[in-house]
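On clarity, I found the account of how folds are encoded harder to follow than it need be. What matters is that the chain and its backbone geometry are given together, residue for residue. The format is easy to grasp once an entry is in front of the reader. For illustration, here is how one protein appears when written out as sequence plus structure tokens.
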Amino acid sequence: MPRRNRKPIKLALQGGGSHGAFTWGVLDRLLADDRLQVEALVGTSAGAMNAAIVADGLNAGGPEEARRMLDAFWEGVGASFAFSPVQPTPFDLWFSPGNMDFSPAWRVADVLMRQFSPYELNPGNRNGLHELIEQVVDFERLRRAPGPALFVCATNVLTGRLRVFERAEMSADAVMASACVPLLFQAVEVEGQHYWDGGYCGNPPIFPLIYMGGAPDIVIVQLNPINIPEVPRDIRAIVDRMNTLAFNSSLMREMRMIRFVTDLIDQGQLPKDRHLRCFIHTVDAEAELAALNASSKMNASQGFLHHLRALGVARAEAFLTEHFDAIGERSSTDIVAKFL
């Protein structure tokens, strides 16, 4: 299909540890569809990594190169995890595709993370993901290349404010700031400021995609489930749900505001030529990801990553089959039913 006939979309990528491999699968399928053109990306944590890789890949060689670079990154994550003492046991694999409830090393690591800070456990501040993202993404090329627009968010530790890094500011440090889980990594310093995971303020923030103008269609790749099947009762499940609620709260507030503005436009109280109408689409696997616990977000085994990737491909395929015609015309997600 000629480039001018492609439907432009903006991608909003949530963070969620190794669950970001689900987004890998979603992106692989969307990039393979020559009816679509990625106009912009915003990402948090694992979503920031995926966003930076896709933006650089699209500039370096188009969708096929972006897909190849995503493969290289996530295969590299899995290869590195093979040397970790924290591994799922046969009992884990029997009961779940990703949980590590029976892993002695995971239980020890979980206790240590609650007793000691990363400044004590990792004084050298080694982070294999930092090295891997630098190997995959050419940040100098990314900063100087034209679109798609790219936004990565992090949380300022001292002020609690959201920092949105744009393409011209992009670096491995900016991406790792967005992915800095406080219990795992030391705060990342960028331009004299210290940052933690962007999910505390925006997972991901939608407003950069609105403020830039352009295409109205925003595809949210959602990793953190809004609904769960039962009340958490053990401490790990309670903490995991607390984090999920915190990381979803900003997105749900933005969805409420988008619905409010859309209603005002529909009622004629806001001029259509001065306010961007947003069409919201979501790709998720809420039931499957809700069945996984916090330990699975630390499970980067090749088998689990490929399980999530396949799930992402399948959900993106279903989205395109059911909702491709809605792109450019209307929202395919009922904002009230899903977020409000």
Q: What stands out?
A: Strands lie at 7-13, 36-43, 149-156, 162-166, 188-190, 193-197, 217-222, 279-284. The two ends are 38 Å apart (CA to CA). The first strand starts at residue 7 and ends at 13.
